[in-house]
Amino acid sequence: MGLVVGSSLMLHHALLILRLVKGLDKSTHMKKVITSLLFFCSVTASAQTPADSVRSTIRSLFTAMYNGDAQTLKSLFHDSATLGTVLVGSAGETAYRNERIAGFISQVGQLQKGAADERAVVEQVMVDGPLAMAWVPYSFHYNGKFSHCGVNLMQLLRVGGMWKILTITDTRRKSPCG
After folding, report:
1. Which of 20, 48, 90, 170 has the greatest number of C-beta atoms within 10 Å?
2. In angstroms, rounded to a whole number, what is the distance separating the alpha carbons of residues 1 and 148?
3. Confidence of residue 27 (pLDDT cuts 50, 70, 90)
4. Strands 94-99, 77-88: parallel, antiparallel or unpaired by DSSP?
5. What's the whole-model pTM score?
6. Rg of the chain (C-alpha set)
7. Half-sphere exposure of 6 (CA within 13 A, CB side)
8. CA distance 125 to 58
9. How is the chain split into domains, by residue range?
10. What is the model's pLDDT at position 178?
11. pLDDT digits 0-9 by tens, 57-74
12. Separation CA 140–CA 147 (nearest Å)
């Protein structure tokens, strides 16, 4: 929130500076200084935060799923990545099921574009150095029909300047959603 407020404030100041520059006729040097300051403010205002980078990786995951793009999907996961699902049975019992990453990627890669449509919102991202966590509620649609909803809890690791998905643990239910 602070970055957004700070960025919009810098942008506001940059626009004020631009108005001043247009009014200056005498000093070419002053125009150059103010134009440089304006450029610096615009670059600073558009800088991507670590949380933004995490969100971008997560969006890439859902785009690759939607497109049935196994190659991109594979590139988003860490070599040691795991998938898991928390299930609640009809009697209220809780179970946990692991899924192999390779099987998931292969399955998605065989789908037609648009078949796997996970509509997700990255609600919260927390970052501590090279480790990030994201809380991502979703509804999953298969071939245009609602299948289930839940929450993805994702952990990501920054490796070689890139965020890689380390774990995804999800919940699945038919309702309530949203």
Report:
1. 170
2. 32
3. low
4. antiparallel
5. 0.73
6. 22
7. 10
8. 11
9. 2-45, 50-171
10. 74
11. 999 999 999 999 999 999
12. 6
Which of 3, 173, 178, 175 is closest to 88 using CA atoms?
173
Peptide bond into 130 cis (omega under 30): no
Q: Is the pLDDT of residue 35 over 70?
A: no
What distance separates the 2 farthest-apart alpha carbons in the chain? 81
Can you state the angle between helices 2-23 and 28-45, rounded to 10 degrees? Answer: 160
Three-state SS string across the chain, please? CHHHHHHHHHHHHHHHHHHHHHHCCCCHHHHHHHHHHHHHHHHHHCCCCHHHHHHHHHHHHHHHHHHCCHHHHHHHEEEEEEEEEEEECCCCCEEEEEECHHHHHHHHHCCCCCCEEEEECCCEEEEECCEEEEEEEEEEEECCEEEEEEEEEEEEEEECCEEEEEEEEEECECCCCC
CATH number of 50-171: 3.10.450.50
Output phi, psi for 56, to 5 deg.
Answer: -65, -40
